[in-house]
Amino acid sequence: QVQLVASGGGLVQAGGSLRLSCVASGSIFSIRTIGWYRQTPANQRELVAEITSGASTSYSESVRGRFTISRDNAKRSVYLQMNSLKPEDTAVYYCNTIVDHNFGRWGQGTQVTVSS
User: How far is CA 64 from its chain centroid?
Assistant: First the structure.
């Protein structure tokens, strides 16, 4: 199974930007859909963005217009460019395949903290 590792989180002021990376241990060419998820102590884990092998994307209402997901099969990576960050974006961010999501399998996330 391909393992996905998220990185790139950090501390940023409201209105700032961060770029998260998700690097796979193997080829992601055959993976149909990879998504970015986030979780706070007060909320259930939510899907914020998805990208398919054909580069089709979708976003949650809360991040649409601010976040951009992209995929680079050659680099075995998926990225999440986060702009105009808000304090409510503070969360642990995870990347995952739709299959692993459905089976409840998760790796380690990366912490994003947005100060007001």
Answer: 13
